[in-house]
Amino acid sequence: METGQNFATVFWTEPKVIDNADSSLKINLTFDGEVTNPGNFTRGITSLSYIAEDTAGNRATCMFEIVVSDTEDPVIAGCPSSQSVPMETGQNFATVSWTEPTVADNSNNVTLTFNGEGTNAGDFSLGITSLSYTAVDGAGNRATCMFEIVVSDTEEPVIQRCPSTQSVSTEPHQDFAMVTWVEPGVTDNSNDVTLTFNGEGTNPGNFSLGITSLSYTAVDAQGNTATCMFAIVVSGKYLK
């Protein structure tokens, strides 16, 4: 077919005919439909013929075909661009939308299909999601438009109930103080987070005279961190 058209313009040399008895033969062109030479032919096979008939009723037939194929791929316009987005605050996904592409084809018979996990204006989880649109026309010619949604996690964990610094006195006749505190909790939008205690000591535990600096560190799967710091301050006079 012509580029951008749903037909092909075809022409041929008209045949000639001779007969041994009659020089005024009638030549008839028969066609199942309307045709001209040259003419526009749509996709498919069109059978044509010339029939020569002399005055005695003798006939000769010349048959041929016009075979028009469609080899032109559809054209997808406005293919979405790849997007890199952070997850929603407090959520383990990002809501992403894009403008739908359009498709054109010379045949005017084309289907555009979305491929991939997810929907337009839908929720996408952490990582890379590969998406595409495929256009297929009636002749099986196709075009593909590909893009990606890249979702990252940039949100730090939240440490809840960070212990307060405590100032305590030593136990009677001891050079330490027994100290305890409520363990903190941690939340993260990814739901994949580790909370680690840092420092010398345990909870509960014995802490020597002076200041002991302690902390908790929360790290999620993407390496985002949060730190909670406090101290145990032990004072008193040790008597043996």
General description of the model:
With 240 residues, the protein is mainly β. It has 3 domains: 7-68, Sandwich (Immunoglobulin-like), CATH 2.60.40; 75-152, Immunoglobulins (Immunoglobulin-like), CATH 2.60.40.10; 158-235, Immunoglobulins (Immunoglobulin-like), CATH 2.60.40.10. 0% of the residues lie in helices and 52% in strands. The strands form 8 sheets. A 4-stranded mixed β-sheet has the order 7-13-12-10, with no helix packed on it. Strands 15-21-20-18 form a 4-stranded mixed β-sheet, with no helix packed on it. The mean pLDDT is 91.
Task: Please report the total strand number as a whole number.
Answer: 21
- Assign the CATH topology of the largest domain: Immunoglobulin-like
Mean pLDDT: 91
Largest sheet entry = 4 strands, mixed
| Low-confidence spans | none
CATH H level of the largest domain: which superfamily?
Immunoglobulins
Tell me roughly what share of residues is in helical segments: under 10%
The CATH architecture name of the largest domain reads Sandwich
Overall geometry comes to rod-shaped
Any idea what the radius of gyration is? Answer: 42 Å
Strand order of the largest sheet: 7-13-12-10
Q: What's the total helix number?
A: 0
Helix and strand element order: EEEEEEEEEEEEEEEEEEEEE
InterPro entries: HYR_dom
Organism: Strongylocentrotus purpuratus
Keywords: Repeat
Pfam family, one: HYR
